[in-house]
Design goal:
- The structure is a single chain.
- Helix content is 43%, strand content 18%.
- With 336 residues, the chain is an alpha/beta fold.
- The protein has 2 domains: 204 residues, NAD(P)-binding Rossmann-like Domain (Rossmann fold, 3-Layer(aba) Sandwich), CATH 3.40.50; 104 residues, UDP-galactose 4-epimerase, domain 1.
- Strands 3-2-1-4-5-6-10 form a 7-stranded parallel beta sheet, sandwiched between helices. Strands 7-9-11 form a 3-stranded mixed beta sheet. The protein has a two-stranded parallel sheet with strand order 8-12.
- The chain starts with a strand and ends with a helix.
- The model has no long low-confidence stretch (mean pLDDT 98).
- The protein binds nicotinamide-adenine-dinucleotide (NAD) and 2'deoxy-thymidine-5'-diphospho-alpha-D-glucose (DAU).
- 2'deoxy-thymidine-5'-diphospho-alpha-D-glucose binds next to helix 3, helix 6 and strand 8.
């Protein structure tokens, strides 16, 4: 029996990963450490709450005493816990620096003292910055050149994780994934925001001219890659996880409207995101060499995501009706 400390497991990717891990490994236990920020939602894991192999610990990855206590009971760590939304980091990045940099350090140092078997840091393609015209996709050797407060805080965590491998020999592996979509994504991110707005005939706010390009990855494809890198990745190395599903903002909004059968008149071009990274693109051949392949392409990933939001309106309506969400929406879109 192995026990895995999954942090941030009440969020979007973390909750999908916990569900995946418990199904994929009958002999694994999971402890989910999550401080339940606005993005952490116990509803995301209702179906595993009753599993004897699952335990929830309410708390902060910056709390060294709590982290030390949990670390003594686990064999491996997968760190998802983070502030994850770029637009919120532009409003103010203190929480980002705390959780995404100091929090990662706290976990790493506790893991070093405990001597865990593996520590997987969930990083992001945003640490590479933005691609110039005609540049090839990033390999893992590309320099880290983050350009917004969120990606800078994630790069700090990414580099600290690598430093712990180099300096102390901690068995660290790192994944850098592209834009995930799928069930349980908080409706501040573009895809769930647009799907849920469209279902309510609300405008879909496209930043700038909708020319920024993102790669899309279905969340369970990401979960499979993380599982693989956790067990088969080379210590001290990073792995890009991209779906080879690139699309610009116009293509994404048009495809969403097609799938929800709503008119293009809902598209509203709004002021651009400050410092908007215009193109992310990953070379994922290193993780593919471990045997990983994405099961979804852009169309099937988006279709599956739209179907989930259609079928789970109680889940997202509860969030969108909350005071926290309404205050954020007004600040980000109405007073923009
Ligand atoms: P999310 O915002 O949905 O979830 C983050 C979770 O972390 C929440 O449950 C929150 O309560 C928890 N958390 C935040 N700060 C914490 C702290 N200090 N202590 C304990 N828990 C804390 O985020 P997500 O989209 O699921 O992303 C998960 C991870 O994957 C993040 O590290 C993010 O940077 C990375 N990532 C995300 C994407 C994407 O497309 N969403 C792509 C690549 C990498
Ligand atoms: O690439 C990985 C990253 O993907 C993760 O590290 C982040 O945690 C995750 O939030 C995501 O970051 P993005 O900034 O790419 O995602 P977001 O959904 O915020 O925006 C996607 C694109 O859509 C981006 O070009 C900005 C644009 N956009 C976004 C929103 C919220 C809009 O046009 N309108 C919007 O309302």
């Amino acid at each position: 029996m192995k026990t895995v400390l999954v942090t941030g497991g009440a969020g979007f990717i973390g909750s999908n990963f916990i569900r995946y891990l418990l199904q994929a490994h009958a002999d694994y236990r999971v402890i989910n450490l999550d401080r339940l920020t606005y993005a952490g939602n116990p509803d995301n894991l209702r179906d595993v709450e009753g599993d004897a192999r699952y335990e929830f610990a309410l708390g902060d990855i910056c709390n060294r005493e709590l982290v030390d206590y949990l670390m003594r009971r686990v064999d491996m760590v997968v760190n998802f816990a983070a502030e994850s939304h770029v637009d919120r980091s532009i409003m103010g990045a203190e929480d980002f620096m705390r959780s995404n940099a100091l929090g990662v350090y706290t976990l790493l140092d506790a893991a070093r003292q405990r001597g865990v078997e593996r520590f997987l840091q969930v990083s992001t393609d945003e640490v590479y910055g933005t691609l110039g015209e005609g540049d090839p996709p990033w390999t893992e050797d590309a320099p880290l050149a983050p350009r917004n407060p969120y990606s800078v805080s994630k790069a700090a965590g990414d580099m600290m994780a690598r430093a712990f491998a180099v300096t102390y020999g901690l068995p660290v592996v790192i994944t850098r994934a592209s834009n995930n979509i799928g069930p349980f994504q908080y409706p501040e991110k573009r895809v769930p925001l647009f799907i849920t707005n469209a279902l309510d005939d609300l405008p879909l706010p496209v930043y700038g001219q909708g020319l920024a390009v993102r790669d899309h990855l279905y969340v369970t494809d990401h979960c499979e890659a993380i599982d693989l890198v956790l067990h088969k990745g080379t210590v001290g190395e990073a792995y890009n996880v991209g779906g080879e599903n690139e699309a610009d903002g116009v293509a994404v909004v048009e495809k969403i409207l097609e799938f929800v059968e709503k008119p293009r008149t809902l598209i509203q071009y709004v002021k651009d995101r400050p410092g908007h990274d215009m193109h992310y693109s990953l070379d994922a051949s290193k993780v593919r060499a471990l045997g990983w392949r994405p099961r979804y392409n852009f169309e099937s990933a988006l279709r599956q995501t739209v179907a989930w939001y259609l079928e789970h309106q109680d889940w997202w309506r509860k969030i969108k009706e909350s005071v926290e969400y309404r205050a954020y929406y007004e600040r980000q879109y109405v007073r923009r």
